[in-house]
Structure formats: C-alpha cells, structure tokens
C-alpha cells in the first residue's frame, strides 16, 4: 500500500525514500490496478517524474521546504492546470485546454507537491453517486467483484486514494462531494469552510456552495494537505509538524472534553440498520475516548436542507 503523506514527509527527510521513488510507486500502482478501477482521467507521468527529480535534488541539498514538499497528489478533473484539459466530466470539453492554473493547483505546487494526474468526476460535479455514463464511472476499490459506487462527485479522487494509487487528492464539495467518496471508500475527506480556499480556476457548479478540500487516508495526512492549501508552507511548518506545535497540537491532542453532536431521533429514522449500527459503534468509541456527545436534531430536517441545497445548486 502507498505510504501516506506524513510517512512520506518523514521518509524523504531521513533518506529512507525519495520523491522519485514515491512517484514511481504511484505510476506502477496506477498501471497495475487502474484498468479495473478507472479512477484516472489523465496521468502526467513524464512531468511528474521530472518534478520528482528536482525535488530529490532539493532534499539532497537541504533546500526542501514544508512538509508537503515532494508529495505526489492528484486533482479532480474540474480543477484547471495550465496547458492541460479540464473535462469536468463532460465529453464536449475534451479539447478545451486550460490557459491558467487554478489557485488550488498553484498552492499545492508552490508547497512542493508533485502533480501526478487528474481524476474522474461526475459530469460538472453534479451528483453524489459517482457515476458518469459518458466519461466512465470509477469503481469502489473495496469490492471489485460486485461493482459498487465510490460516491461522488469526487469519485476518482476517492477511489485513487483508497486503492493506494496516490497518497492524497483534491476533491470539491457542493452538497457532499468530498464527504461521500470519503465515507464510501473508507478514507478521510474534509469539507472546508466556504471561501477559506479559493475556487478560482475550478469549473463552477454553485458559486455559493462550492468548496475544494483534501481526500487522504488519515486525519494527519488531510491536515498536511489542508495546510498547503490555506497558507504558504515553509520550513517552520515542518518543525511544527515534528514538534506537534501550532495546528498539529490539535491534530494529536486528546478528544477528552471535546463537545460533539450526534443524530437525534428524528434523523435516525431514515438510516439503514447496518449503517446505523456502525455509526453507533463509532459514537461509543468517541465516548470511551472522553468526548462529550449530545443527540441533536437540527432546526430543519436534513431532507429540507438537502432540497434547499439542490435548489441553489440547480439555479446557479
């Protein structure tokens, strides 16, 4: 299995691995399993290997910067990269080459990340199942014998991370499109606060609701990618990560006394039994770790909120 972001960051600095080795591993894994999973829209092998060699030299000379330096990543194919096509899951966009890179792309590259390729998406990111009859539907890596959805609309990003083809990827979330693939594929997805991360250069679905966010295999990995997305990542960030200061003090701290809400009785009624059993087990695990959890029904039922989300998204 592909090492995670945090493991790679440490391995690059202690010399047990290198960005070139990590990228080569990604490309090998893609070649081995993506014919079955179909997570990738495009792979930039030559560019990724060339960038990895430059990153190798930076580590050898001591010029490597923050903890995301040298980390391979993928972009959902609604995120623009200068000189590359952003299909947004639409066959009619196959020949539209981006004239500029999205802010998200620039931030991750400035942090030293290595772009391996772009992952498949629901057409124009509009849908939670992860299906796309025109550009192909990725399969959930957990059960390739009985084809199952990876969730959407960031379907390819979720499947690529879950299957170990890439340590982290960017998705976008308008009504669950980061959270659903994370849940379906058993990884971590972060729905970020609106306007915390720029959407400039991302093919829009809803200007009001669109938010880009990381998909990774652990909270630590997602936090490392999130840091690169929200501010310049430099040497001090790596030191903070090592010493668990700054944002990292929160990532590794105990959840004792942390206040959380769980589903109230009204919202539990519509949940499948097996899902509810797993959910309740997780709630009990959190309680055992010291979290303070209170059942709560939102002021409006989730179904009404979902309908409102759909109305806004469709209108925009």
Written account of the structure:
- By secondary structure, the protein is of the alpha/beta class.
- It has two domains: 5-252, Amidase signature (AS) enzymes; 259-315, no CATH class.
- 41% of the residues lie in helices and 12% in strands.
- It contains twelve helices and eight strands.
- It has helices spanning 5-14, 19-37, 45-61, 103-110, 155-162, 179-185, 219-230, 235-243, 247-252, 265-268, 273-288, 302-315; strands at residues 40-43, 72-76, 114-119, 168-173, 188-189, 211-216, 259-263, 292-296.
- The strands form two sheets. The protein has a six-stranded mixed β-sheet, with helices on both faces. The protein has a two-stranded parallel sheet with strand order 7-8.
- Helix 4 links the parallel strand 2 (72-76) and strand 3 (114-119).
- Helix 2 packs antiparallel against helix 3, helix 4 packs across helix 7 (219-230) and helix 5 runs parallel beside helix 6 (179-185).
- The radius of gyration is 19 Å and the shape is globular.
- Please tally the β strands and state the result: 8
Q: How many helix segments?
A: 12
Mind describing the biggest β-sheet?
A: 6 strands, mixed
Assign the CATH topology of the largest domain. Amidase signature (AS) enzymes
**What would the average pLDDT be, to the nearest integer?**
93
| Poorly predicted segments | none
Radius of gyration: 19 Å
**SSE order in H/E notation?**
HHEHEHEHEHEEHHHEHHEH
The order of strands across the largest sheet is 1-3-2-4-6-5
Strand proportion, as a percent range, falls in 5-15%
CATH superfamily of the largest domain: Amidase signature (AS) domain
Task: Tell me the helix content.
Answer: 40-55%
Structural class: alpha/beta
| Morphology call | globular
How far apart are the first and last residues' alpha carbons, in Å?
40 Å
């Amino acid at each position: 299995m592909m090492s995670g972001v945090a493991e790679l960051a440490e391995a690059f600095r202690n010399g047990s691995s290198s960005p070139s080795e990590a990228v080569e591993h990604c490309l090998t894994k893609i070649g081995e399993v993506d014919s079955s999973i179909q997570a990738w829209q495009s792979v930039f092998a030559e560019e990724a290997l060339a960038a990895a060699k430059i990153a190798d030299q930076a580590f050898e000379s001591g010029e490597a910067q923050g903890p995301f330096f040298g980390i391979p990543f993928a972009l959902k194919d609604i995120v623009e990269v200068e000189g590359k096509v952003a299909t947004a899951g639409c066959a009619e966009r196959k020949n539209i080459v981006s004239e500029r890179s999205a802010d998200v792309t620039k931030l991750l590259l400035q942090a030293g990340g290595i772009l391996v390729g772009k992952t498949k998406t629901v057409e124009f990111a509009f849908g939670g199942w992860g299906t796309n009859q025109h550009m192909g539907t990725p399969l959930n890596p957990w059960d390739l014998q009985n084809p199952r959805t990876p969730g959407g609309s960031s379907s390819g990003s979720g499947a690529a991370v879950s299957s170990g083809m890439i340590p982290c990827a960017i998705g976008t979330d308008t009504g669950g499109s980061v959270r659903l693939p994370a849940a379906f594929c058993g990884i971590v997805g972060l729905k970020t606060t609106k306007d915390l991360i720029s959407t400039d250069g991302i093919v829009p679905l809803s200007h009001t609701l669109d938010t880009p966010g990381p998909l990774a295999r652990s909270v630590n990995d997602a936090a490392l990618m999130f840091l690169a997305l929200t501010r310049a990542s430099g040497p001090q960030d790596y030191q903070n990560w090592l010493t668990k200061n700054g944002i990292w003090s929160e990532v590794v701290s105990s959840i004792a006394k942390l206040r959380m809400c769980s589903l109230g009785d009204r919202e539990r009624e519509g949940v499948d039994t097996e899902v509810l059993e797993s959910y309740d087990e997780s709630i009990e695990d959190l309680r055992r770790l010291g979290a303070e959890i209170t059942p709560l029904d939102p002021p409006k039922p989730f179904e009404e909120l979902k309908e409102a989300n759909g109305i806004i998204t469709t209108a925009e």
